[in-house]
Amino acid sequence: MAKHLVLVGGGHAHLMTINQIPVFLDKGYRVTLVSPSPLHYYSGMGPGLLAGVYRPEQVRFPVRHMAESGGGVFVQDAVQGLDPKARTLRLASGATLEYDAVSFNTGSRVDVPGNGALAPDVFAVKPIENLVAARERVLERLARGPLSVAVVGGGPAALEMAGALWRLGRDARTNPLAVQVLAGRRFLSNLPAKAQRLARRSLNARGVEVLEEGYAANVTTGEVLLETGQVRTADLVILATGIAPSVPLGACGLPTAPGGWLAVNKFLQSPAHPEVFGGGDCIHFQDRSLDKVGVYAVRQNPVLRDNLLGYLDGRPLRPFHPGPPTYLLIFNLGDGTAIYWKGGMIYQGRTAWLLKDYIDRKFMRKFQP
Ligand SMILES: Cc1cc2nc3c(=O)[nH]c(=O)nc-3n(C[C@H](O)[C@H](O)[C@H](O)COP(=O)(O)OP(=O)(O)OC[C@H]3O[C@@H](n4cnc5c(N)ncnc54)[C@H](O)[C@@H]3O)c2cc1C
């Protein structure tokens, strides 16, 4: 029986492997992609999707088509766990799937404050496709009257969501849209002071309120309860709070880091189970803790492809070199400008936005089938 490679999640780190499935088939291997959706949305363009700068079809990869056109099998399902000894995956549908090698690129989900469930009119920023529904709901409610939206979260995703909502309200030209950011205890605390200042100034100038009154303890329709006991109200809520692994791999007997992230060695391989690999947000790279940013997921593409093939072939694997700890981030402010940040270089302007748009569109083209 041909050896079976299962790719779990068609995320940013698996795109090259999915596109090169024919290479695996030529060597006599079978490849299956398991994903809850036939489409994978690119997070970097998520804020532009919410704002209406991009259409949904411009910001997503047709991962089902990519897998099937290369001769792979696509299973629309979500992996819930695995038995590393039996080498089987457990799927949400109740089915099981055997593997000889498996790679996880299941990303992260938003950690929903309170009981973990999303109430009506509360949208989590991930998966990014949620932003399609959020956009439709904002437009529908705005057409009926003034609307208030609270963005819960204090990181760059919350900044970009607030900017995108402002843009959406402006371009809708219907009723007033009030946007507030419930930023926890300190807005953008992980960014340098200059980036914080630029972001605040930009939001304040557009009437977006940034509140630093404490973390959200519970979120229900129309209400955000803060850890202090205060309640903030808003018609709609967008959650850009902290992230957690999408699949509880630690509970399945795989070594994980605090938080439940899949531990991998320099070959992006589980130290306890050499047939288990991973990339993107869902891993903890043991050699050096990496930020949960798409930059690393993208850089892992060629190493994952080579090492999955190398493992099946029984050849030596190559190490992943994450690169210098300073990498480029550009935050889309929604007003036609962006904040550029790389090392000590920080500025806001239209050129930063144009650069981000160029890089993102190029990335989308690179991995199209
Ligand atoms: C609004 C926003 C903007 C961002 N902008 C940037 C940016 O500009 N630059 C940057 O570097 N980073 C950015 N990030 C961070 C970036 O989103 C993540 O680091 C990146 O998405 C990680 O990629 P990934 O492929 O690991 O995970 P994901 O993008 O989360 O993809 C995971 C995939 O796994 C699938 N999946 C999930 N659960 C299962 C399951 N149980 N079984 C099977 N499949 C599953 C999902 O459907 C999805 O296709 C942004 C994040 C947000 C929220």
Task: Provide a short characterization of the protein structure.
This protein has 369 residues and is α/β, with parallel strands linked by helices.
Describe this protein's structure.
The protein is of the alpha/beta class. It has 2 domains: 4-107 and 246-313, FAD/NAD(P)-binding domain; 111-242, 3-Layer(bba) Sandwich (FAD/NAD(P)-binding domain), CATH 3.50.50. Helices cover 28% and strands 27% of the residues. It has 10 helices and 26 strands. The strands form 8 sheets. Strands 5-2-1-9-22 form a 5-stranded parallel sheet. The chain is globular.
What's the CATH topology name of the largest domain? FAD/NAD(P)-binding domain
Superfamily (CATH H level) name of the largest domain: FAD/NAD(P)-binding domain
Could you tell me the number of beta strands?
26
Strand content: 25-35%
**Attached small molecules:** flavin-adenine dinucleotide
| Average pLDDT taken over every residue | 97
- Structural class by SSE content: alpha/beta
The helical percent reads: 25-40%
Radius of gyration: 21 Å
Largest sheet: 5 strands, parallel
What is the 3D shape? globular
Write down the CATH class of the largest domain: Alpha Beta
Which architecture of the largest domain would the CATH scheme give at its second level?
A: 3-Layer(bba) Sandwich
Q: How many discrete structural domains?
A: 2
Q: First CA to last CA: what distance?
A: 28 Å
- The total of helices stands at 10
Unreliable stretches covering 5 or more consecutive residues = none
In spatial order, strands of the major sheet run 5-2-1-9-22
